[in-house]
Amino acid sequence: MDYRDSPAEAEFRARLRAWLADHNPGLPASSTDDEYWARQAEWHTALYDAGFFGLSWPARYGGHDLPTVFDVILDEEMAAAGAPPRPSLGYLVQGISTHGSDAIKDRFLPGLINGTERWCQGFSEPDAGSDLASLRTTAVRDGDEFVIDGHKIWTSYSDVADWCILLARTDPDVPKHKGLSAFAVPMDQPGIEQRPLVMINGVTKEFGQVTFTGARVKAENMIGEPGEGWRLAMTIVSHEREPGELGYVARYAKTVKGMEHEVHADPGAFRPDQHEAVAWAHVQTEMLRLHVCRRLSERLDGVDHGPGGSIDKLLMTWVEQTVGSAALSVSGARSVVDTEDVALKTYLYSRAQSVMGGTSQIQKNIIATRILGLPTS
Amino acid sequence: MDTRDTPEQAELRRAARQLARALAAGSVGELDDTVRAGRLAAAVRDAGWLELRDDGGDGTPLAGGEEAAIVADALAGAVADVAFSGPVLAGDLARRAGLPGAAGAVVAFAADLVGPAVVTGAAITAPCFAVDPDSAHADAALVLVGDRDADGHRLARVAVTGDAATAPGTDLTRAVIEIPPGAAVTEVSGQTRLLAADDLAQWSALGLALTTADLVGVMRGVLDVTVAYAAERKQYGVPVGSFQAVQHLLADAHCLMEGSLSVALHASWAVDNLAPADALEAGRVAKAYASRAARTVCETAIQVHGGIGNTWECIAHVYLRRALLSTQWFGDDGVQLRELAATRLGVRA
């Protein structure tokens, strides 16, 4: 058990800290402001060019082949500097790395990692939410191509994406989990139309919905084998549930730091319950940071795609919602007279965390049956 | 950074859990088996675990905070009715005063159980409490002598006249013995150092780490019992654990235990590896989180056991009672959050 930096880790931390001192773009939090999304690509490129992105991913594709614990250092330093979190692409990298052929990996991973090609994820549909395997978007073979028809929703960043990792039904005659395949679909084509969805906190740049009407994708862009789509989706969502993969510790720590700063300036202006709410938000955020340290240390022996991500997702959800509630408490009446109040937006956004990436109810089903071994009803 | 157990730590964890499983009471009725309890106490003593924080010869403890926490967690996981944290904490405090160990004494705590009793005269004037005394040696407790704003404290002894084996207590597995006002304070010879604020901060950090580890063990143990019960108990012809309403309670509880383990491990490492103030803060974060978590987890265990969970014979309340003592000892979540607000937000009492 050792939480100290190794010499290599300490050197990395010092280099990163020095760089952040000069290059923090001062962006608002991703969850509360469209400006983050407008400038995310710029931040991604800056991090990548400085050698601080894709730390644990293969060097061959633009990563750095470092142990996953370096991501903890990255998140800690970004939080300390009040910098925006790193773009959350780890789950796409894991999905493509685990299921894609060498040709697919060579073609798509470098652009994904260096930020020259942007991606969205086309999994959920209006009638296929938690029951993802019932999705109805079809991909029908036509010569060297597949023709896609269907409707995807909750498609984050669809407005700026160059590519969509799409889950579609390629075989309607087999059980629902087995007839799905995954594709890298180019977004810039006539058969694709995307519309933004406004979230309850007013953010317009995150969520979208996409309709595919006779859209086309080359057969060689299939990721994995025909019928491997469900397994790829499970790889992706298991990583999408992991705070270590997402870098969200930095996001929560930034919010808590802001609250601490505000209260510290004049503690007497706040009630004891507000002091306690902020202290508890700090405790929760520290828990998640230390939990990620433990999880990523456990991975020094190799990546695990198991059901443990559901535990981490629930913990992360509770942290985000505790932080959101604390922000609302500290803001007080400001949150109902100022529609642009960041605390209000933080709180409202936090309600999505128990839904996105699989609802808390689904996570609990997974934990109960696959980790605790309870019988299914 | 590598937060995993070293091979030696993993072996200690395995051995301590095995010993606890073999010798702790498997049911409420077995708590009355004094022969078994005697074997358990002897095994813990013989393993050398009560001296883990005694002087190793050069002023440093025989083992780190991590190892002490590993044993605390293992014993709590089986609700082992044996003294451990009490003697270990006394050994740690005695070592900081330059003594080789505490010679079987435990520390006397002020009535709120948050910190050690501090005396200025020849006898104590307010009741204090010996927590988790080793029944074989429970004749004395250590108190701090001197004003709180002095350069440092010396240690002194007060006599413990109650019997650990028969003392009534909320925790059915560890004793708390009241030391009444008027008890004489006697000198402890051989001290070579005054206990400074940093010593007490580090010692409190150890106390927070051990009580947090105890809470993690309680959560793991009571969840094992409860998940097994839910898989076996049938209603409507199926195991109650097949109902989502029950599954979700247990899933929540499991996550709370996992999160608590993550903070507990860090707090145990922090004791000897961070500056005193930082170690103390790590302990406060861990204790605040695990106190709230353990309360919920134990309450869930009682709920999932249904009617039987509310009877004396069900072991769930033995875990809850142990959690209640570990929560109060060195301060509950409210105490820790107040202290964190003071240090992080500048809130003055």
Order of helices and strands of chain A: HHHHHEEEEEEEEHHHHHHHH
Oligomer: heterodimer
Describe the global form of chain A.
globular
General shape of chain B? globular
Helix content of chain B: 40-55%
Distance between the termini of chain B: 37 Å
CATH H-level superfamily title of the largest domain in chain A: Butyryl-CoA Dehydrogenase, subunit A, domain 3
Mind telling me the CATH class of the largest domain in chain A? Answer: Mainly Alpha
CATH class label of the domain at 197-345 in chain B? Mainly Alpha
Widest sheet, order of strands of chain A: 1-4-5-8
Question: Under CATH, the topology of the largest domain in chain A is which?
Answer: Butyryl-CoA Dehydrogenase, subunit A, domain 3
Strand content of chain B: 5-15%
Q: How does this model look, in words?
A:
- The complex is a heterodimer of chains A (377) and B (349).
- Helices cover 47% and strands 14% of the residues of chain A.
- Chain A is of the alpha+beta class.
- Chain A folds into three domains: 89 residues, Butyryl-Coa Dehydrogenase, subunit A, domain 1 (Orthogonal Bundle), CATH 1.10.540; 109 residues, Butyryl-CoA Dehydrogenase, subunit A, domain 2, CATH 2.40.110.10; 137 residues, Butyryl-CoA Dehydrogenase, subunit A, domain 3 (Up-down Bundle).
- In chain A, the strands form two sheets. A four-stranded mixed sheet of chain A has the order 1-4-5-8. A four-stranded antiparallel sheet of chain A has the order 2-3-7-6, with no helix packed on it.
- The longest helix of chain A is centred in the C-terminal third of the chain and has 27 residues.
- The model of chain A has no long low-confidence stretch (mean pLDDT 92).
- Chain B has 349 residues and is of the alpha+beta class.
- Chain B has a domain of 149 residues: Butyryl-CoA Dehydrogenase, subunit A, domain 3.
- Chain B contains ten helices and nine strands.
- In chain B, the strands form two sheets. In chain B, strands 1, 2, 3, 4, 5, 6 and 7 form a seven-stranded mixed sheet that branches.
- In chain B, a hairpin with an 8-residue loop joins strand 4 and strand 5.
- In chain B, helix 1 packs parallel to helix 3 and helix 5 runs antiparallel to helix 6.
- Chain B is globular, with a radius of gyration of 20 Å.
- The model of chain B has no long low-confidence stretch (mean pLDDT 95).
- Classes of the chains: A alpha+beta (377), B alpha+beta (349).
- Chains A and B meet through helix 3, helix 8, helix 9, helix 10 and helix 13 of A and helix 5, strand 9, helix 6, helix 7 and helix 10 of B.
